[in-house]
Amino acid sequence: MMEEKMEMEEKPGRVMMYVREDVPEDFYSFVADELNVEQERLRIEKREHGPMAGIEWMMPTALVVWLMKAFFDATLQEAGKDFYELSKKSLGRLIKKSHAVKSRLISAEMSPKKLSEGYDQSNSISVKATLHPNLTITVLFSEVLSEEDFHEAVDNLFDSLVVLYETIDKECGGKEYERISRDDLFLVANPGTRSWEIVTRSQMFERYKGG
User: Global pTM?
Assistant: First the structure.
């Protein structure tokens, strides 16, 4: 049985992608082909697929794209803007492609009721964005948005993350950001307002109560 929460450490480079072993390589390989033309900026690691004890929004999705802090640091430099635009296009296409595929979580026997019947976020793909050494935000993708609204949300996602990064960088800079620990914040699309909203861990518990 896998742990409730897969440990994924930030590694050198700009983008990491964790892929469940049952996902066909030809489903996502185009991203590496597009982003690693001049040098290796995207690294891919595969992981096992099996029962997990936990709750959906704490479990790793079939694909997890991790935007490292170096990815956001580069957006402040002229030389990094071309890679940012390429990443936004390529990763956006992967998110839209993955969202159309339904992925089922396998609940461990010890915690079958942890899976919420009302959970409406995708189990196929998620994004982690390290905006500060002490702050990684997890982006989840709603399955109740219309296709048009979902595509619009994805198109706005990367620019929204850059704005958050720039705001935190301006306020904190090299200082410690101790108020929030890693994975305490989530970014989810609000179907009503058709915009991204920041949700805390406690709010996620309230929203998706298991069993």
Answer: 0.83
Q: Does an H or E element contain 197, and which? A: strand 195-200
Report yes or no: 200 and 180 within 8 Å, Cβ to Cβ: no
CA pair distance 130, 11, nearest whole angstrom: 11
The residue whose two tokens read 């982690």 is 128
What digits encode the pLDDT tens for the residues 36-71? 987 888 999 998 766 544 556 677 889 999 999 999
Q: Which 3 state secondary structure label does DSSP give 28?
A: helix
Sign of CA dihedral 162, 75, 169, 10: positive
How much is the CA Rg of the chain, to the nearest whole Å? Answer: 17
For residue 42, what is the enclosing H or E element?
strand 42-47
